[in-house]
Amino acid sequence: QVQLVESGGGMVQAGGSLRLSCAASGGTFSSYLMGWFRQAPGKEREFVGAVTWSGDNIYYVDSVKGRFTISRDNAKSTVYLRMNSLKPEDTAVYYCAAGYGSSRYWGSSQYDYWGQGTQVTVSS
Fold this sequence. Notes:
Blueprint lengths: L2 E5 L2 E4 L4 E8 L7 E7 L6 E6 L6 E3 L7 E6 L4 E6 L8 E8 L11 E4 L3 E6 L1
Parallel strand pairs: 2-11
Antiparallel strand pairs: 1-3, 3-8, 4-5, 4-9, 5-6, 7-8, 9-10, 9-11
């Protein structure tokens, strides 16, 4: 069983930055596809980005390209989401997730394990 714990959320003004971390335990982190999703109030959970097990392939939703950066440190069993130039519409609970394969990295069903989420609030 894999446990995922996100941290780093908070409140920031528009244009600011945050870095989220997701620490994994209980599994072979280096073998997992790691994804970031978010859910705003009243909206469905949305794919933000993902990184393959090797880190060679990283994917982003169009709305965050050029502003968000995903990275992973397999030695620390941690994946990061660096968020720059934050906008009020980025306000959401952010979740990290772990899964196998990468054929449908944008879909929630690709992932077997989920963290509890961390709140990000961007004020205008």
